[in-house]
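Query form — protein Clp protease N-terminal domain-containing protein

QUESTION: What is the three-dimensional structure of this chain?
INPUT:
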Amino acid sequence: MFERFTQAARAVVKGAVEHAERDGTKTVTKEHLLLALLDRQDTRAAAALRTLCPPDRRPSLTAALATARRRAGLSRADTQALADLGIDVGAIVDRVEEAHGTGALAGDRKDPGWWSGRQTFSREAKTVLEKSLRVALARKDREIGDEHILLALTMTGGVVAEALADHGVTYTAVDTLVTGPKVP
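ANSWER: The structure tokens for Clp protease N-terminal domain-containing protein are given below.
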């Protein structure tokens, strides 16, 4: 499948691996894919993100991702469902971080020597890449571009899709922007 990726899409995948390495994690997640998309400049996905979530709103988006990471990746819907059962996720996060340090539930490992080898992709990140292929095929595009990765991120659910939607980046909005002529 990777051979069908455009240079821009390949750069996103490589950028996601770099974000995971900087985070000190061995697994590339959907969040890393989004962060790599946010790094891009002159691509179709970058143009869509610039329009829908201008640079001045990006800190809010990355903060929403960091907050979700602190909650061990639970979405607001997950947190609310647990609250309905009488479980206060915020209190649990506070107690775990009090005992084990900030970010304990995020799975962050800051010791660079704790792991060596290639980054692996989480099941969810693999699903995004597979869906990007399906999106490209449905649109009758020959190659998978970074816009297909962005579209797939908006439709896979979870924290990343939730944070994107909260910032106006939905499947419909992105699709509308990238349906036009194929120029970055």
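ADDITIONAL NOTE: The chain has one domain: 2-75+118-178.
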